[in-house]
Design goal:
Strand content: 5-15%
Shape: elongated
Number of helices: 5
Structural class: alpha+beta
Largest sheet: 3 strands, antiparallel
Distance between the termini: 20 Å
Order of helices and strands: HEHHEEHH
Strand order of the largest sheet: 1-3-2
Length: 125
Amino acid sequence: QQLKAAQGRIAELNIALNDPNAAIISGPGDGAPEGEIAIVFTDVQSSTVQWGINPEAMASAITIHNNHFRDLIKEFGAYEVKTVGDAFMIAFHSATSAVELCTKAQNTLLELDWPKEILLNKDSM
């Protein structure tokens, strides 16, 4: 089990390293927020387990996840500080924008077309 988890983590890191959008900085035309800002950190629950069980499906899921968050970042005028694996660090001009993005993310993640292998795993629920 530990070997599978380690192999999954290696696959996750390889995806991140090969993702042309990983660790990019994006956001509104005026750049990163300054002064009083809000920061959000995201993380995919049980992703290391998922990588160990089905790295191919997880690679697809991470692409879906990352594209979705990047769309939300643009929609809310936020700023992608960095990504590492399945985690984002996002800066906002206001706490209100941060809460609004997080609320929309939680609701809309349920509507995305996830690989069935990911949904079949109890750790995904």
